[in-house]
Structures
1.
Amino acid sequence: MGKSTTKDMTEGSPLKLILQFFIPMFFGMLFQQFYNMMDTIIVGKALGVNALAAVGATGSINFMIIGFCMGVCSGFAIPVAQRFGAGDYHALRKYVANSVWLSVLFSSVMTVVVCVLCRQILLWMRTPEDILDGAYSYIFVIFLGIPVTYLYNLLSGIIRSLGDSKSPLVFLVFSSLLNIALDLFMILVLGLGVAGAAYATVIAQGISGVLCLIYIKKKFAVLKMEKGEWKWERSYVLHLCNMGIPMGLQYSITAIGSVILQTAVNTLGSMAVAAVTAGSKVGMFFACPYDAMGATMTTYAGQNVGAGKIKRVSAGLKACCVIGFIYSVAAFLVLYFFGEQISRLFVDAAEQEILHNSWLFLVINSAFYILLALVNIVRFTIQGMGFSRLAILAGVCEMVARSLVGMLFVPVFGYVAACCASPVAWLFADAFLIPAYIFVSRKLKEKIEDAPRGQ
């Protein structure tokens, strides 16, 4: 099964190979953003601007906590994939078992801590008083669902690690459609307000998680536990933590800067929060291709470095940059001419000030999408080449940049400064990543050149 889903990217045209790998990845991530957008669209249209701002005010802290959960689960799946490739099914099952125990532990502790601190975190972030209660009722339910987040992401990660990349996409599409239906039911029929949107998200993801579990039990006989394999073992736990925690932190580090920036935006009032929320949601949707490019380059670079073909890595990087730059120009043109109309998905047409500010946010950000393309392409190429720590430092650069803009410039220049925060963050990251890539390439070339001499 695993072999049938792999693709050799060490031979043939880099541009063609990257496009072939990129397109399915793009559609998967597009559905994931679609899933994330639905709460905001329905809340904005059905409940109004204040409710939209309430959900938006939780976006950065939501990403910091939930992103950590997703990263940890992705890391837990790595040893499972390695053991599957080695044919060591006994160790594979022990890694799965210990990842389950760790997920139970992590999710329990995180749920208690963040739920207890939830309201205080929103106060620390200076959430406007008129949206504080709505923000709290939304994010509290999302945080109550942390165990569900672990359930779905751990199981879908295990499925992918065993060579099945299509089934998690099917479950994700199902979650998206179910989430829409539950949003409408919870908000319009039961009248639960913004909390209803959160319940819809948690329930949809929970059902998908259960479906993943049923699918695993029916599909993967290799995961049927044998005697003693459910035992907690320190060596397995430590290895899983070494893989999972750094990947979780990679998600969260970038989000810390977003939290500081969101705190600054919150001081501008609920109208500014609503405009940034609408603009960010549209922007995230248009940024999906960059995420897919990054995931593509991780695999492409990893395979070619493993084959000792460093020149092909550079050729692939250039080919992917061409794709990224062409898309960046197209995205800017679409958002410049139609950004305000797209924002009406979230905001009523009568809210002209919010729509204009959302358009301004989108135009300023998309004008620098070429920088974002470089961030994702170069960072994930470096990760694929085996230098994950350097790639993580790019997240630190983004965090510092957003923090500086939030603390120093938003109080002085207001909303326009908030619109410029992400472009500045991308510039900071690229200033680190491009020299880092040159360094990594030279280091690997020297290693390969030295290898025949026995070094």
Note: The radius of gyration is 22 Å.
2.
Amino acid sequence: MKKSCYVLFIFLFPLFVFSQNVQVLGGIIADSINVNSGHIRNLGNPVSGQDAATKSYVDNNDAVIDADADVTNEIQDLNLVNNILTITNNGAATDIDLSSYLDNTDSQIVTLFAIDGSNILTITLEDGNSKEVDLSAYLDDTVLSEAQVDAYADDNGYLTIEIDGSVTNEIQDISTDNTPGNITLSDGSTLNLNVTDGDANSMNELQQLSINEDTIFIENGNYIIVDGLAKINVIYNLSIASYSVQQRLDAGETPISIYSSDNSLLDSLYGKTYQGGLICHLNTFNGTGLIAALNDQSTGAEWGCIDTLIGGTSNKLATGQANTSLIIAGCGETGIAAEICNDLDNLGYDDWFLPSKDELNTMYFNLKFNGYGNFDNDIYWSSTEKQADQGKGQDFDSGVSDNYSKDSSKLVRAVRAF
């Protein structure tokens, strides 16, 4: 009997303990929660009877405390559709339109520039939008070749940039209406020069003389009669007329003197021998000119110093000597075109130089083109530099000026000035 009671106690004791724990647990939970609040749901799968009792208690009691007792302001999701912001779980909430806060000027990358045959430029952005621009009003159909641009600007020394920003002070033609002191510019402006007569005597100024028979007339109307002058003048004119231009040069007459005696003789001066070569240019204002050597100084020489910029050379007439000096000073190579001309001592003259681009051009048109000078139908070097790796030359077959690599082999003809 005692043994049976002991066994029964062993089976009933856990149930007693369990019931006590549940009661204690129930008291603790009931004392610590607000039963009117939201539910706490234990979604686990209880194993022991104690866990099952706990779950049952929790599931059947409102166990979440709402601090402000307001169920409409709990954490919720926000939704943005287009530009409208809404909040979930509150159907009475106001929708917020964010359109006024948007900036549609976002920076985008241009993905394509395209122009069609009708001068329409299409610009496409990365978002796919595009814009068409009609460029017809901005187009100029005038197309110049490289040779035309070179001939107009670089080779002829025209200004391509307005240096001082003023178009009223450019180089202009000057003319006079023969009124003393009046000079007119090609833009229509007139300048009056007040010339001071040093001795206050208007009767002794430089004047034009003319001869008629035995009478010498002065521009102001005065004259003087020289007996026998008419006969002397006839003899002089006959004497001049009987000599050729070459004979007059050989007799010591200067090119400018011959030109002054008869302006029509300018072309006749070209190709005539004078001071060691052939006359190829005459400045009719100051009497200076250019003489080409009788023969080529080289059938194949380089301009020299490729990829070295000499700098400062010019295209123009009367600059070949300076160009040659710059090349000699800036290029240490031997046997180059400028050095060959600079070292030439020919027919008693040692002041030869390599011609500038424009000086070379006068040699072509005033000598080669008219059959003078024994020139070859090939390219001759000038002393004008184009850039670090190119110099300027001229084809004496076609007459075309062009740029050539400094290390290419070209013909050389020296010139000198008088």
Note: The CA atoms of residues 203 and 220 lie 8 Å apart.
3.
Amino acid sequence: MKKSGFPSIVIAGAARTPVGVKCGTLSNFCAEDLAVFASEEAIRRSGIDRAQIDTVVGANVYQYTAPGMQDIYFPRNVSLRCHLRTEIGALLVQRICGSGLQTVMNGFSQIALPSVVDDTRVSLCVGSETMSRTPQVIRSPRTAANFWEFVEGGTVEDTLLAGLNHDLANTAMMITADEYGSQMGVTRRDCDEFAELSHRRARAANRTSHFNGGDGLQGIFAIDAKDLTGRPVYLAKDECPRRTTLEVLEKLPGFTPNKLVSPGNASEISDGAAGLVIADRQKAEELGLPSRFEVAGFGVAGVEPRVMGRGPVPAIELALAKAGIGQKDVGLFEINEAFAAQYLGVEREMKLDREITNVNGGAIAIGHPLAATGARMLVDLMYEMQRRGVRYGCASACIGGGQGAAVVIRDTESK
């Protein structure tokens, strides 16, 4: 039973790019480019007249990956390049690994507000990341004598690596996963077995993809691109999944105090984007837009930063409460696999059924383009729910700094 009083806001269109491996096919595109691709496809699938879109909510974590360093204009440029009305606003949100989910939460909130506060009825929500293009910067202060000059001899910083540390808590992402997993009794073998499963599931999903004549992964659309040699590439599948074995994974070095995290059981650095068009149900029905799936609830919660991987646990509890359902009512889960140790900690604490969780593989195999991941999970979740006839699904991610975010969606045509 849907919780009384929760607004009915539907997903009218949803699409995602393939996820590109680091320095792979999609690395020639900036985050803005990929966001435009995903937005255009989500708009096309919704069938909406672009003039009916009232706002854009965009997410991009690693700024300054675009040519000319224009990522500060990210959501506005997406709006303009998609030829939406000049008059509408665009908002950039950033909740690290939960940013893609946050676009939907913000879009939902704008639609749900009384019209006297916000007259948004339809929102384009998009998350995008080109981690391959995260730059190296020189940290050097401006001089007092001339504001436009800099002190010589600044320190060089890898912006990608800098973001993986949490200096205030004196920890790093992989260490928090190691600590949480260890607390929950997770072993290195558990992590490697799960990583192998993630890759196996992702490869199996590709075989049943709609590009291969099946009915799976229908959220993915193809991109015409060029590889790093300039050769044309028709990219119609995720690039990161690979054939691996437990024996190979077990030989990789452990990077963390408890040796739970290795290069083989952590999420893949990658590039990608996903977009969703969400709308007030009444407006969607007036316009004849798809209205089968609706946002049933969402939640954000904080946890101790040193075990940030636990974030999905309280976030899912909040989202389920808003949806007016229990965990047993959820037929499919997408839990971001930042690290196998982190995912397995959540799985154990929540007693998740692995048979209905990350059924097509997760970020260990697919990749984790930070701002895109939450939106990617929602797109994949929605289409897999439709494929299996599942009524409720939940997507959730842990978030650096000690947070979690979760979104529950409902198939109104499923019994």
Note: Residues 225 and 231 are 8 Å apart (CA to CA).
